Amino acid sequence: MTYQEVLSRGFTLRGMVHRPQSVPPGIRLPAVVLCHGFTGTRVESHRLLVKAANALVEAGIVAVRFDFAGSGESDGEFVDMTPETEVQDAMNILQWLGAQSGVDRSKLGMIGLSLGGLVTACAASRTKLPAAIALWAATANMGQRMNERATPEMTAQLQEKGYVDSRGNMVGRGFYESALQIKPLQEARQYAGKVLIVHGTEDQSVPVSEADEYAGAFAKCFPQLHIIQGADHTFNSQVWEADVIGTTVEFMRQILC
Questions:
Q1: Average pLDDT value for residue range 130-136
Q2: Quick check: 135 and 248 in contact, CB under 8 A?
Q3: Average pLDDT, the chain
Q4: CB count, 10 Å around CB of 173?
Q5: Confidence (pLDDT) at 55
Q6: Which domains, and CATH codes, for the chain?
Q7: DSSP secondary-structure letter at 67?
Q8: Torsion of CA 206, 209, 210, 214, to 10 degrees
Q9: Is the dihedral of CA 167, 170, 175, 177 positive or negative?
Q10: Over the stretch 39-48, which tens digit does the pLDDT of each residue have?
């Protein structure tokens, strides 16, 4: 595992690259980018992305997990982050990864959790680079959900200050505007690779019905839809964690290796 910095939109994105140690550096391997969720980092809850990266390495796949601009250790401010800026960051990471000497550009993949799932759907559809993508508890209608959950106090704060204080994270006006403008389900129809969609039945943040919406949008890809009974938004149990990671790594291994 090595520390890595990548430039995106004038910001330095910081992350980690996991590569099988037994493989010489010059050998080109499949590689997967992991995208964290809203207010998350490249580690995520119960080290979910770290564990996923390690499992990918065991399958012979390079794994890259990074912080979006404004999150974790990357440059930028959270208040300036939007779904669209994260899509741009993910696209830049993909381009960087595909140019590495030890990576097979024809065998790239992406995994995205929550907002990272929306980002994955859009970045993959726009670049056409990933041969396979996995969406974990991906949000399809983020702008709509945020509007439904907005309180009068939040609306007033947004109008007065230009941001909403969400548990210490300042969510800017631009984020709300971008969330309403971006159309991941429409963009998904342009993707032609392989797709895995994983969602928990007890997800209180993103309804499991949105997994069905993604499945419909990716219909021409004949997506695999994997529903985990009882699982919450970030798969917070050993059983759910093992299920989402195991299912995803096997999917990536079959497509990329």
A1: 98
A2: no
A3: 96
A4: 15
A5: 98
A6: 2-140+184-256 (3.40.50.1820)
A7: P
A8: 150
A9: positive
A10: 999 999 999 9
Q: How many Å apart are CA 141 and CA 234, to the nearest integer? A: 18
Q: Position 239: which residue type?
A: V
Tell me the three state secondary structure of residue 186: helix
Contact 39, 49 (CB under 8 A): no
| Contact (Cβ atoms closer than 8 angstroms) between residue 49 and residue 56 | no
| Strand-pair category, 103-113 with 29-35 | parallel
Token pair recorded at residue 135: 């969406």
- Amino acid at residue number 249: V
Three-state secondary structure call for residue 55:
helix
How far apart (Å, rounded) are the C-alpha atoms in residues 243 and 90?
A: 25
- The residue with tokens 């209180």 is 204
CB neighbour burial string for 201-232, b if at least 16 within 10 angstroms, e if fewer: eebebbbeebbebbbebbeebebeebebeebb
Among candidate residues 24, 16, 29, 53, the one with its CA nearest the CA of residue 105 = 29
Angstrom distance (rounded) from CA 31 to CA 178: 29
**pLDDT value at residue 87:** 98
Residue type at 141 in one-letter notation: N
Q: Which helix (H) or strand (E) holds 179?
A: helix 173-181
CB 44 within 8 A of CB 71: no
Tokens of 6: 């990548």
